[in-house]
Amino acid sequence: MNNKYITSYIEYIKFEKRLSNLTIKNYLRDIKLLEKQWPDKDFKFYNVEIIRRSISKLHLSGINGKSLSRMLSSWRGFFNFLTHRFSFSQNPVLGIKAPKSKKNLPQTLTLEKIIKLINITDNSFLGCRDHAVMELFYSSGLRLSELVGIKIEDISMSDQTAIITGKGNKSRVVPIGSYAIKAINEWLNIRSKIKNLAKDNTVIFLSEKGKPLGVRAIQYRLKYWAIKKGIPENIHPHLLRHSFASHILQSSQDLRAVQELLGHANISTTQIYTHLDYQHLSKVYDTAHPRAKKNNNEN
Question: Is the model's pLDDT at 284 over the cut of 80?
Fold first, then answer.
């Protein structure tokens, strides 16, 4: 019976809500994880106690509060659908909150290290492609999933902008810097020479065999260049997005603009970068202000 409920819900969020494939995949994973804990129990008989015990077990297994909060949101939407479509008596997830977890500020790179990382002069197939990937990442603050799916027709070279499809299939227009435009043009020239490339394949970033680059491949290539450039930090795609946001906010102090550029639905998500900015200002203050310097001779 549970399969019937899940199938109906997936059809609903796919065809009526028109959520992205990635979002649907994540919702399905969260629902399956809940079901796995109570394999013989019909969803109709789930209650508040079952949800609480599920969250407790998952928390004890090491899943953090942020992830648990996302799961609760997935379950809440699922049971809300079931109460309306299948006349369930209650939504057992209502009112339940995830345990709070420590907020970790996102890691960023200094401007000097960003330039060192993305300033690739290798003119080979991989060198040109990876240069364009990293320039676009840092220039426009994209998510990894957004970069993987970007197509030639999404970019306007004349306007130096790109139409990005983000979470929930929401679109936004982002600017592309001149360095990124130059790197993308150089890459597209090489891309056009890939043998047996299908005409309808307009995904920008491809392998040497003409296949779209996957998430893992891009993660690997960034780590490759970090090692090659002698950068000790753990380099990953989101690090470039974090660095983009932090650097733009430090320069402009315009939180709303950064929110729009990143495609955040809520400005509270963007506000974490104000904490990073404050950390930076605190270090400057401690170093420069004469009354902030510690006097080792004082008792």
Answer: no
202 shares a domain with 118: yes
Nearest Cα to 135, choosing from 121, 156, 125, 151? 121
Active site residue 241: yes
With H, G, I as helix, E, B as strand and everything else as coil, classify residue 292: coil
221 part of the active site:
no
What pLDDT shows up at residue 296?
A: 46
Provide the β-strand partners of residue 132.
none
Give a yes or no: residue 185 inside a domain. Answer: yes
- Residue 90 token pair: 């209650």
Q: What is the pLDDT of residues 178-202, one digit of tens each?
A: 999 999 999 999 999 999 999 899 9
The answer to whether the predicted template modeling score (pTM) of the entire model surpasses 0.85 is: no
Q: Are residues 133 and 279 in the same domain?
A: yes
Active site residue 238: yes
Containing structural domain, residue 42: 2-85
Instruction: For the chain, state the CA radius of gyration.
Output: 23
Same domain, 123 and 236: yes
H/E run at residue 76? helix 65-85
Convert 162-174 to b/e letters by CB count within 10 Å (16 or more is b): bebbbeeeeeeeb
Count: domains in the chain: 2
- Whether residue 212 contacts residue 203, with contact meaning beta carbons closer than 8 Å, is answered with yes
> Is there a domain that residue 97 lies in?
no
State both tokens at 39.
Answer: 């394999």
Query: Is 143 marked active-site?
Result: yes
Q: Which of 167, 172, 236, 280 is catalytic?
A: 167
